[in-house]
Amino acid sequence: MAIRWPLLVRRTHKWLALVVGVQALLWTLTGFYMVVVHIDTIHGDHLVRSPVTQPFDLDGLAAPSKVVAAAPGVSEIRLQRFSGRPVWRAETPDGPRLFDGRSGAPLPLLTESQVREQARRIYAGDGDIVAVRLLTKAPQEMQSRKPPYWQVEFEGWNRPTLYLSPQTGELISRRHALWRVFDFAWMLHIMDYDERTDVNNPLLRVATWSAFAMALTGAWLLIWSFKRRKRKKA
Predict the structure, then answer these.
(1) How far is the C-alpha of 40 from the C-alpha of 29, rounded, in Å?
(2) Which among 7, 66, 81, 229 could bridge 104 via Cys, Cβ 3.0 to 4.6 Å?
(3) On the CB side of 122, how many CA atoms lie within 13 Å of its CA?
(4) Residue 43 is assigned to a structural domain of this protein
(5) What is the CATH number of the domain that holds 71?
(6) Transmembrane residues, as ranges (predicted)?
């Protein structure tokens, strides 16, 4: 039995278009969103205040060697401010730690009240804090960051949320509604429904090659239809 190539190609093109068409529509819609909303807005730069640089009074500060002696294995140490006072920030094998800038004594982990104060200092908006949680399990929007960290959520239509280090109070990340929509759109765009990071996953490759096959079969049908019309005219 001879193969009717036009019929076979037409059916292949039809089913590929049906399957790939839905994903192609998602690629278009999600790509449109990612282009329209400015990336700085997605990053949440508008949620945090610009850091203010203030000079340090070096008189009476503990020597860095005292901090190094108190925390063996320190790879980096620098002077910074926390709650308006000077502190030494040391990068230890167990993570960053803060030491009192004048006594050199290690500072304890942040309390909830300190986290609230630090979050208000960082946040650029006017909304009140509605929830503060110390997370030991990463939520979906922070899968790339290893806990523990403090989650501070502010009131507002876009649910602005800051994530702070429990050791240093430093800002780890910020999230809001437009970022969450972007993250969902990115998941649909790259077809990684688990980690949302793999831009070369098998599902995406199958969809890409299927779209390519759909384009080839469509081009073949177009060329074949022109030849057929010429034969009919002749």
Answers:
(1) 20
(2) 66
(3) 27
(4) no
(5) 3.10.450
(6) 15-36, 206-226
